[in-house]
Structure prediction request, 488 residues.
Amino acid sequence: MKILATLIAALLLMQSTVRAEELRRSISRSETSPARPNVLFITADDLGLQLGCYGDTVIETPQIDALAASGVQFDIAYVAQASCSPSRSAMFTGLYVHANGQYGLTAGGRFALHPHLRDATIPNILKRAGYRTGIIGKLHVGPGTSFQFDYRGGNYVVARDVKLVAERASDFMTQSGDQPFFLMVNYTDPHAFRPRDPETNKFGDWTFLDRVEGIPATLVEPSEKTVLPFQQIDSPEQRKRVAGYYNQVKRLDIGVGLLLETLKRHGHADNTLVIFIGDHGPPFNRGKATSYEGGLRIPFLVRWPGVSKPMRSSAMVSTVDILPTILDATGATSDVETHGRSLRPVLENADAPWREFLVGEYHLHGPPWFPQRAIRDTRYKLIHNLLADSARPSRVIDGDIGYSTSREDRYAGTPVRTAFDTYAKPPEFELYDLANDPWEFHNLAGNAEHAEAEQRLKTALEAWRHETDDPALDPAFHDQIKQKFADR
Prediction:
């Protein structure tokens, strides 16, 4: 027995010694390893899939394509809501919009993050973890004063001048010294522009800025190519508008190249997590401010040195995954509940299991209140228009003429007219076979041939709404929101 006791004691001592040695090595690694990674989070205002790496052939986007080739390009990615403030709120909190309170734009102060979430955003969490935080371009989530940025490099006007953006990013990196940093760069391109008359202070018509400070040098001219696939509206006026949009995408591409060159010049290319996204689709009818693919689908690129591998991924990802990914990369801890999860598994392995369904939603951009819930799998997409019997969505977005043009006689009896009719007066449910109808021109809801898919998505959507405590499950919630507008 004494021999056995001696052996056990020796084994326990050896295990203790091994654990101590592992701890010592862990501490040693942390002391000698590179500093915690920086984070460069890049957003492009109103950018959908109009990039070469996503198969667009109208223009070349070599800088963004190079970023895609150096990291992981997600082929199917959604924003939480295809509207500026709500979309960005989900990125900052990792929560779907129905849970964070930013249902619509910050304008007028009607909507902002719920009070208990205002210190649980990416910059605030990282600042507590010892990061220096900065933002260039618009914030557009309320209340703006709750965001703890050490550096604010200018608003949306500044963020159209891509050379100036790179200069200010350089200033921020220089000022950060050896401190790890989080920098969010929000390019205004390719958002439409609405000039203001300095004498009357009134806004003019929406347009697109072909050039800013001489960029881009070569312009896209209107042609049969400048027709958006999710609209199929072809007219001289719309061709011109779409060409202007593409010119702004070209300027964005140049800007991203300048920014990444700045990161490299400062010696941070190999120790910086880079995330690039659009904040929602283009500012055209059936795009921005809808739950169609033209609004929800965005480019989503991630380069995480030491973790990601250059590849394309079919994993269905969401912008609610951004906060958990950043916290994972930086080691920052937070007890804040999120709806997303770190992308690490699918950045390391293209075959890693991921989510079965991808969800998006809509509440409003400006009035009216027209809540929607949308869900898709690898083939089918379901949209639930919650108030289809009593409300209609807005047919106006940033001066677009797509809907009005679809009223012309030449579109009568065509899928284009039918699709825009559905857009303007949607039924309670819409179902689309994305494998055969990627831009949702043929509503299959109620079609017996697709009944199984419709029911499967309805069941999954209902489960998601309950799992995430969707307040719109209670009819009284809609009355409360409508009252916000009645009170002002």
Notes: The chain has two domains: 38-356, 361-486.
